[in-house]
From TrEMBL, chain A:
Protein's UniProt name: DUF1302 domain-containing protein
Top-level taxon in the UniProt lineage: Bacteria
Biological source species: SAR86 cluster bacterium
Automatic annotation (TrEMBL), chain B:
Region of interest (Disordered), residue spans: 138-158
Native source species: SAR86 cluster bacterium
One Pfam family per UniProt: LolA_like
Domain of life: Bacteria
Alphabetical keyword list: Lipoprotein
Domain Uncharacterized protein TP-0789: 91-282
Full protein name: Outer membrane lipoprotein-sorting protein
Length: 475, 299
């Protein structure tokens, strides 16, 4: 409970500090709402004159202009003291506690240093303070972590563009849960990241774009495919495995991924066809030989054929993705941020999947979207031994609904996300608020509630309520 | 949502808010004729234009008897390129890139605006966090949605959408003087159909007779109460066009004001069609190279 009070206290202080109207001009008389002017009134013609003064010096560019830096302090924690019944007579205690207390900096650099050339870099550094799970995992020591996100060199000429380095490739139209968005790996380290847009990891790739008159091709080669990282020790998703989960041992094997997408726009619609040779992002772990040593990480390659389309009808945008995957593993216990701990059936099968949904602009301030992802293995019973069954049989998938409302001239954004699986075994509900204080400062908060029955791996987080607050300074 | 807002207002923003080429010789124009000239001239300035603007918004109050910001203004700056297409260049395409604030730097928007009300406008947005170009459902320019804020400012799409003159009753009220300038005072009243889509039941414009620049606009709600006032200042000749380089709109209901400062505006630019495509959103090397070529035309 002390942790909870600490979290609420810290969040309150952050909000108060952030919302303190330090920029207010205290010698200005504030007017009542619905003010009326009779005829002319005095208006300071030079109020925004500085804009033109600044313009005269706008040509004095600095190399620092190529940098965008965002510094943020985040607190979050589980605030509901409860227990989870994971087996008859056994309840897992879930105590309220601070989970994250971290200061981070995101740095982005983009420099068009010569005609047709761009160098782009983005990275992050995190410092984990007291009570952060990474602090505790390091033996109560402040831990600092660095990570390079983007780092690529781009050269564009005529109708071509070549981009080499760490980058992402995103396929599919359905936002948030497209069956085609499988090129890059993801890391859902904790519940502060539940959107795939934030969880996507960059990989070393060469991307070639061809911009034709009526359509575009975009192709990629990845000579060093990476895999979803295992859960970080101490994080909410970490469970002590029976055997250590290690990275894939590449030995002398040569792995690569490649794919291409053709895209064309029509009035009111965009369509794409794509094909790729890929590795499943989730490694499958098997018990070590003689049950000694580390778990053995196995990769699986497969072919993907896809089609995606959208259609705008007034304020409605319809999205559709279709994926056919050849030779995917029949069983791959795939839970965000965790490894495969089950003993899956060692069969390769073909899979068909679709994601579809809509986005609707209720008004200029409000929008709602829904995406449904459904997948099914073909000939799912073929090759199974008597008594065997797949973890995912029949149609399986998830749905995602988002709502946002923009208030106060875009300064305040209220958003809500509901996410669940098609079998209705779990539900994740998020309510968030993002407030932009001024051009540099922003503060955000969110509360997440998880519901689950014992059919879902989210059972371990059932009835968890998480509260978080983040203060951000950008420049 | 941002896309919806931008798509509707972008072209008007880029092109011609209060930009009126002048040299009118007719001094005995009717209200309708004056408004038609405004419309024609705005369309002319929308074609092949490169602009750089700053948009500032704040809560306002009174200091020493003058309206002023009661807080530090929120400032956004952007660069935009537009071009006319179709019959009489009544359709248009534009690209806008936000330069500031840092948190929004690099957000790009491509818009195709169709004059034909039966064709929906098209908008694509590029957010680096999204990792791809995304089509935005924006609806037609004359649908029955509430007019939206432009970049979170007090400027709305309706404030810039002064066309569709057939849908208004236009009255030349008087010839008067404002800020030492001779002006026409013109009243526009939407017809029944237009009124359903508008938050204004009546608008009064004060147009500089010599320079054809709107120096003041008053917007009234259905109860006859003034709810917004717009002021055009810093009228200067830019590229042969008289321009109110600083335009301020005050929302008298919320006591917030926004100022749009045209830092640069260049017309007659040779904009290649390839620039007004999705490639400009995603291909930073291409975009920066082509922008340099466009800027070189100015120099």
């Amino acid at each position: 409970m002390i942790e909870l009070e600490k979290l609420v206290g810290i969040a309150t202080i952050a909000l108060v500090v952030a919302l303190n109207p330090a920029n207010a001009q205290d010698d200005v008389l504030l007017l009542d709402d619905d003010v009326q002017f009779d005829g002319d009134f005095a208006f300071d013609d030079d109020l925004f004159g500085a804009a033109f003064d600044e313009d005269s010096s706008a040509n004095t560019s600095s190399w620092l202009d190529d940098f965008t830096i965002k510094i943020s302090q985040q607190f979050s924690g589980q605030i509901n003291n409860h227990g989870v019944d994971i087996a008859p007579g056994f309840s897992l205690p879930r105590e309220a506690e601070l989970e994250t207390n971290r200061l981070g900096a995101n740095i982005r650099y983009q420099n068009a240093f010569a005609p047709g050339w761009v160098l782009q870099f983005s990275g992050q550094i995190r410092s984990y303070w007291k009570d952060d799970y990474e602090y505790e995992a390091e033996g109560d020591k402040i831990d600092i972590e660095y990570r390079i996100n983007e780092f690529f060199l781009q050269h564009s000429f005529d109708q071509h563009s070549l981009k080499f380095g760490r980058q992402t490739v995103v396929w599919g139209e359905t936002v948030g849960n497209s069956v085609l968005d499988v090129i890059n790996t993801t890391e859902f380290r904790d519940f502060n990241i539940i959107d795939i847009e934030d969880a996507r990891l960059n990989q070393w790739m060469l991307v070639w774009d061809y911009f034709g008159e009526d359509s575009n091709f975009s192709s990629f080669v990845n000579l060093y495919p990476e895999f979803n990282p295992a859960a970080v020790r101490g994080s909410p998703f970490f469970f002590e495995p029976e055997f250590n989960l290690t990275d894939y041992d590449r030995d002398s094997s040569m792995l690569f991924e490649a794919g291409t997408q053709w895209r064309k726009s029509f009035e009111g619609s965009d369509i794409s066809f794509m094909a790729a040779y890929l590795y499943e992002n989730q490694l499958r772990y098997e018990d070590p030989v003689s049950r000694l040593g580390d778990a053995v990480a196995e990769t699986n390659d497969f072919f993907l054929l896809g089609f995606s389309a959208n259609r705008a009808i007034g304020k409605l945008l319809l999205n559709f993705d279709l994926a056919y995957s050849h030779d995917v593993l029949a069983d791959s216990f795939n839970f965000p941020g965790t490894a495969s701990l089950a003993n899956p059936v060692n069969l390769k099968k073909d899979q068909i999947g679709t994601s579809m949904g809509f986005e609707y602009a209720i008004s200029n301030e409000q929008s709602v979207s829904l995406g449904i992802q459904a997948q099914m293995l073909l000939d799912e019973d073929e090759g199974l031994l008597p008594g065997q069954s797949l973890i995912n049989d029949g149609v399986f998938g998830s749905w995602l609904m988002r709502y946002s409302n923009t208030l106060m001239n875009n300064d305040l954004v209220i958003s809500s996300t509901l996410q669940g699986d098609l079998a209705a075994n779990s539900l994740l509900a998020l309510l968030g608020a993002d407030y932009t204080i001024n051009d540099n400062w922003a503060v955000s908060g969110q509360i997440i509630n998880i519901s689950s029955n014992d059919e879902s791996p989210l059972l371990f987080f059932a009835e968890d309520v998480r509260l978080s607050a983040t203060l951000t300074y950008s420049f | 949502m941002q896309g919806n807002i931008l798509s509707k207002g972008l072209i008007s923003l880029v092109t011609a808010l209060f930009l009126i080429p002048l040299q009118s010789t007719a001094q005995d124009l009717s209200g309708r004729e004056i408004m038609e000239k405004l419309e024609d001239n705005r369309r002319a300035t929308s074609n092949s234009a490169l602009s750089r603007m700053q948009l500032s918004t704040c809560k306002f109050g009174v200091r020493e008897g003058k309206i002023t910001c009661a807080e530090r203004p929120r400032v956004k700056s952007l660069e935009s390129v537009g071009k006319g297409y179709g019959v009489d260049l009544k359709d248009s395409r534009s690209v806008a890139i936000l330069l500031d604030p840092p948190a929004e730097r690099g957000i790009g928007m491509l818009s195709f605006i169709y004059d034909d009300g039966a064709r929906d406008n098209e908008t694509w947005l590029y957010l680096s966090a999204l990792g791809r170009v995304k089509r935005i459902a924006s609806g037609s320019s004359d649908d029955e949605t509430e007019p939206g804020s432009l970049f979170g400012s007090e400027f709305t799409t309706e404030d810039q959408d002064t066309g569709k003159l057939d849908e208004y009753e236009i009255n030349l009220l008087e010839e008067t003087e404002i800020s030492g300038r001779e002006v026409w005072k013109i009243e526009t009243i939407p017809n029944e159909e237009r009124a359903r889509q508008s938050r204004y039941s009546r608008t009064v414009l004060y147009i500089d007779k010599e320079r054809f620049v709107e120096l003041r606009i008053e917007m009234y709600d259905q109860y006859g109460k003034e709810i917004k006032r717009m002021l055009g200042t810093r009228v200067e000749l830019m590229n042969g066009i008289w321009v109110a380089r600083s335009t301020t709109i005050m929302n008298l209901v919320t006591n917030r004001l926004s100022n749009m400062a045209f830092l640069e505006m260049h017309t007659g630019i040779d904009v290649p069609d390839e620039f007004l495509t999705q490639r400009t959103l995603t291909d930073a090397a291409f975009r920066e190279t082509e922008l340099e070529k466009l800027r070189a035309q100015i120099d």
